[in-house]
Amino acid sequence: MSVMEALRRWREADRALSEASRRYMRLNESDMRAIRMLMQAQRQGQIITPRDIAHEVGISSASTTKLIDRLVAAGHLIRAPHPKDQRTICINVTPQTAKAARETIGRQHARRFDVAASMSSDDREVVVRFLTALAKADEPQGDLAEQ
């Protein structure tokens, strides 16, 4: 039970941190998911379209248009012509939003890295096995997998 209680406390802290980040950047959960995905894609040199955002966030194309419109108006995203397909556009995170995210989220990732780095190699292997098994146990089963 102590393992599950520690995991619960970490999840609560993680949720509180995510909520604080959303409030700081004045974004909702879908907005944050889209921005995180866009930032990762930009780092990898990938081109992201509205369709990619809809798939990642799990929303309709109409909702994706509203999300993009809202984030463009707020100065978080920019639309650009797609370099290979004139029928669509690509979406990028503005430099200001990328910087704000790096400053807030980046500091948190650094703190998490420090915690992991302070552990012995054997302890890290145990944690990785535990979290991998937990992720597998949490995969939707039966009726949940079909929804």
Describe what is shown at a glance.
With 147 residues, this protein is mainly α. 71% of the residues lie in helices and 7% in strands.
**Side-by-side strand order of the widest sheet:** 1-2
Secondary-structure class:
mainly alpha
Topology-level CATH name: Arc Repressor Mutant, subunit A
Shape: globular
Number of discrete domains = 1
Please name the CATH architecture. Orthogonal Bundle
Number of strands: 2
Q: State the major sheet.
A: 2 strands, antiparallel
- Series of secondary-structure elements, N-terminal to C-terminal: HHHHEEHHH
What are the segments in which pLDDT stays under 50 over at least 5 consecutive residues? none
Question: How far is the N terminus from the C terminus?
Answer: 31 Å
Average of the residue pLDDT scores:
89
- The DSSP helix count reads 7
CATH level-four homologous superfamily name: Winged helix-like DNA-binding domain superfamily/Winged helix DNA-binding domain
Helix fraction? over 70%
CATH C-level class? Mainly Alpha
Please compute the radius of gyration using only Cα atoms: 18 Å
> How much of the polypeptide forms β-strand, as a percent range?
5-15%
Pfam families: MarR_2
GO molecular function: DNA-binding transcription factor activity
GO biological process, one term: response to stress
Organism: Brevibacterium aurantiacum
